[in-house]
Amino acid sequence: MVSSLKELIDEPELWHSDDPEERFISSGVSWENYESLLAKLEDNSHYRVTYLDGILEIVSPSIRHEKIKKNLAMLLERFFYSKRIRFTPMGNSTFRNKAKKAGAEPDECYCIGEEKKIPDLAIEVVVTSGNINKLEIYRRLGVAEVWFWQRNQLKLYHLRDNQEKEQATVYPDTYGYEQIAKSEILPELNISLLEQCISISDSIQAIDEFEQGLKGNRQ
């Protein structure tokens, strides 16, 4: 792996490694360098870049990470279709705010209803722990709900604090987010069913069991 941000930006070829999940972290990074790196990686969607108060984190996701991400998105979109919920998938688009010194690329994210500049829901698949607190970034960006998939379960957080404040005053330990058991933007979604089906490696079986569960919930 490269040893400095400058080396990464200047290197004509991005690093390669046999490690299934690479993580690069650097502090004291200017906003200009962050944007320079985003420009360099514009045509390479494999890397996830996160920025908060001068700390930069770049992750090269593992195959396991990507399988979980795709399974989750596939099932969630099946739920949208079955419930006739209008949505806009925004994938791992980059969202950033220079004034708030924050930027992130969720693993998956969605606008519910009409399309917006900032998604209503951001999803993060956590395989290895990072050094940047994603909830603080999403608070500053104003994302209403954030889900983390970790250790085969989902942890859901809903924003209660005003992102215009410098620091969260409501639920400060979780950066203005309250941990919730049920999604507030998708109240009909059975989270336990979704968790169960995300872990099924066979996509057809996962969809079948998920859709059967959705039908069971309607009965």
TrEMBL record:
Name this protein carries in UniProt: Uma2 family endonuclease
CDD domains named among the record's database cross-references: DUF820-like (cd06260)
Keywords: Endonuclease, Hydrolase, Nuclease
Organism: Nostoc paludosum FACHB-159
Molecular function GO labels: endonuclease activity
PANTHER family found in the cross-reference section: SLR0445 PROTEIN, SLR2084 PROTEIN-RELATED
Domain Putative restriction endonuclease: 31-191
Keyword Magnesium assigned: no
Domain of life where this protein originates: Bacteria
Keyword field contains Chaperone: no
